[in-house]
Structures are given as C-alpha cells and as structure tokens.
Amino acid sequence: MTENLALSLAQQLIAVNTVNPPGNETDAVRILAPLLQDAGFLIKEYPYGPNRSSLVAHKGRTDQPSVILSGHLDTVPFGSQPWTNQPLEPSIIDGKLFGRGAADMKGGVAVLVATALHYAAKIDEKPLTLVLTSDEEIGCAGAASLIDKKVLPKARCVLVAEPTGNTPRLGHKGVFWLKALFHGKTAHAAFPELGVNALLKAAKAVVALNDGILGGRAHEIMGEATLVTSRFLSGDNYNSVPDLAELGIDVRSTVNWSHDEILHKLKILLAPLEPEIQVIFDLPPLWTPPKADIIQDIFSSCDTVRGKSHSPAIVTFYTDGGVLGPGLGNAPVVILGPGDSGMAHKVDEYVEIDALAESVDIYLNILSRLCL
Ligand SMILES: [Zn+2]
Predict the structure, then answer these.
(1) Residues sharing a CB contact under 8 Å with residue 83, sequence separation 6 or more, in sequence order
(2) Which regions of the chain are under pLDDT 70?
C-alpha cells in the first residue's frame, strides 16, 4: 500500500518538468503539499523565484529536535542524446521506472513522502520534518537559503534520500577549487632574456603540487584528500614570452584537512613563484561518525530490511546534507535512498521498482524506531 503510493508519487513527480534551470519546483510542491496537509502536517512553502519554492512539512512537537527527511525537487536537463522513452513520461519496463529524476531523486522524494504519510497520525512526541528543496543541482542553493532564513527546526538527524542503492552512507569529500595566477614580463620570443616567463612559473607549480603534498593523512573511511592540477592557460601567441599564466586546482578534501589549512600549505609551497591565489568554489567535507546511537539505529534498520550488515562508507557526490547537517548544529547526516548513483544525470535514467519498495520498507523501519 505505502509501496504503491511511493510508486504513484514517483510517477506523478517525473511527469512535472523541474529541469533546473529554470526549476519550476512549485509544480512538484503542488502535488505533495496537499497530501501532507491533509495528513496533519504543518505546511510552509518558501518562494525561491518565479514558480520556484521549497516545501517544509512538520508533524509533532515543535520544542523537540526533529528527524529531518531531505530531498530535492529539481532535476538536471535531459542531455543531448535521445531517450528511448520521453523523459517526462514515466514508463515501467521490466520492473524499472524510467524518467528524468527517477533515481535522482524523485523516487527518493516519493519514498520520503509516502512513509511520512504512513505514520503521520502517530507522530507527535518525536517530531518529523520533510525538507524538500528547490535548486539543489546547482550548488545546493535552495537548502542554503532555508538555513539562511533560519526556518528549520533543530535536527536529531538528517536523512537524505539520494540514490545510494539503499545502503547507508555517512558523508562525502569536500570540494575546493583554487585559481592561481602567475605573473611575468612579456618580451619578444627572440629575446627571452628580456622577459620573465609566467608559464614557466606555472609549470614549476604544477610539478610541485603533484608531489603528493596532501598525502599521509588518510581518513579511515574517506581515504586521502586528493589534488588535481586541472586547468592550465597561458600565452597569446607563439612569438612572445607570456606574462600571465593561470592554473586551476581541484582538491577533494577529507575531514582530516581544513580548507584554510590546505590554502595555507599551497601558499607557502608556491610562495617563491609569487602567485595570486583565488578561491573559486568551497564546499567543506561532510562526515558523520558511525558510533552515535541514532546512526546505529539507522544501520540496524538497513541490516534488518536488507538481511545483511552494512559498513560505514561515503558517496562520491555532494548533497543537500552537506548544507543542512552543518547548518543545523552539525546534526548527523545519513545519505540513503533507492536507485544507483551511476544513473544520476544519465539518459534513460531509471529506478528499479523493487528498490523503491525496499526503500519504503527501510524508511518505515527507521521512522518506527525514531519517531513512534
Ligand atoms: Zn540529487
């Protein structure tokens, strides 16, 4: 019954176009808000732009920390390749539900709403809050705006139903993009001794940065932080000494490094080359230690429903949990949802119907432990 509702909601959500940009997430909110309101949830809609909004639905006491169920309503565009079936026409073939957002993450949102509705009448002392955001796909900006507005309750935990193959995941690496500009002095290439070659400085920086400078601090689950020198631009023509070179750097960090510390290390290492370093993008890593009781409960639910034990692990993609967890007093975050993360953003995206049903069973188990 709850499984059927989840499937039906997933189909209805896929049929509304919430490709971001422009988003139009309010069309999805129109489907979900009345159902939650009828079940006794307190509904608040937060406008985000033309026909864009995030939905917050709360049930139970307001003076107790809440279990937060997190999902996003937008999807990525359809891609340039043709789909076998239309991306906005949900179709079931061989036990799979196809359509844009089936895995990322209208399937997950449907599971969260269906399971919240299942227990709505019983939830009171231990509150539950659904946070369904706009504009996740472009930097989690919808979730960030809810944190800025301070409209969310205190959190016991945040459960994000992004596709993880129904395995619980405890975080993700941080993303830190830096731009380093190297300055020199131009001259005719026939007289290089009259110039200072900015490209040569940048090349020395590339060599220095690729010397394993973030090694030796492996996190037991997240592994090592990584650094890639990813962009390299210089030179306007063949016959001049270049006076400017740009180097792009991508760092994937763990909680064993702060981004300030990484920036400081790079500045010291590259100081002889006198670069100008700019931060282009800065999302910190997310990690929830597995020992907390509430995390043990969530893992037990997964173990019970799936009939096997699960070990702590992380995902390779960023989620609203990276904004909501730290923004809500470092609440523990678990990423747990139906579908294969490899499906996200692909043509012919799908979620298996059995995976949706299994996810419903997992969330019912979790909510019965945490909210009843
Ligand atoms: Zn997603």
Answers:
(1) 347, 348
(2) none
